[in-house]
């Protein structure tokens, strides 16, 4: 059977385009009153004044002199702590004041993960609390302007994906963009409106699974089998995640900026634990889809090359394929999650912390639950897909065997 039906594909792509447009029309959540768009522009740093800035080398504990602070070569490649104010002279690169020069402030608070130390030539994002600025206003240097390189990297990714994958690559690109829009324009606004986070994310993941399976396999028995297998694994993972986050007392506040969202963000009613459960389902869903499709495709090949295979043997073949893939996929989840906290593990090693204390640390416990729940879904998606596949593919083979040859396409 051909993978693509041109008429159905055109209809489906048109449906996606309509959904894209509808998602852009969905209004976002209202920002808190103290968060306003104000004035925002990209600017080039012309010069810097570091006299009011304290810079300390972590390795030696020594403070850098003013000459050293003004020398970018003395700053690059060193682990430094910045505290104080950096004053910048910037030239705006866009907006109604393009080409004009302003003074911008940069406050550094001795937080390496948040502080930015600018040097002449850097492109930065500058903001002001009011929408209109005048000559002499002092702006705030918010962060590096990464837009250009981000767009360039995304464009290179799109070109490479389409060249290598051709039509399948284009469909994969559609699913990639659709996933981003669905999360940003549907999932996040609904949760911030008070919808239950875990169930909202689960529903969107199931819908996204259906879209991706169609784009990859089409509306075929293979795609349907992969969809049901993956959705079943995600569903069981959702209940498992709810249970273990409660019995292990995992607080959703381990998610970054969660406390800020509740207090300064203006959303004190959000259930952080429920959001954490949904985040686990969302994080593991991609691997679950991959495994469901791998097993479904393999079972389709077995049924195609051996039409007389029994339903039980077909299911056993699916289970054997699942065993071979699950081992590497669970390890993939472990490596992906642990990579995000490698410095935390290194700190434990430097302190000589015992394994028991490491496991009881809330951040580590959250990652353990996230890894094991994701692996739980992966392990279960294999038998689910095998059971669904043994019924769907055998039923398809029986239907084709009873159809007169002159009626077959």
Task: Give your account of this protein's structure.
With 409 residues, the chain is of the alpha+beta class. The protein folds into two domains: 40-145, OB fold (Dihydrolipoamide Acetyltransferase, E2P); 194-407, no CATH class. Helices cover 60% and strands 12% of the residues. It has twelve helices and six strands. The protein has helices spanning 6-25, 66-69, 72-75, 147-192, 197-217, 221-247, 258-262, 272-305, 311-339, 342-351, 355-360, 362-402; strands spanning 39-49, 53-57, 80-92, 101-109, 123-128, 138-144. The protein has a five-stranded mixed barrel with strand order 1-3-4-6-5. A hairpin with an 8-residue loop joins strand 3 and strand 4 (101-109). It is globular and about 80 Å long.
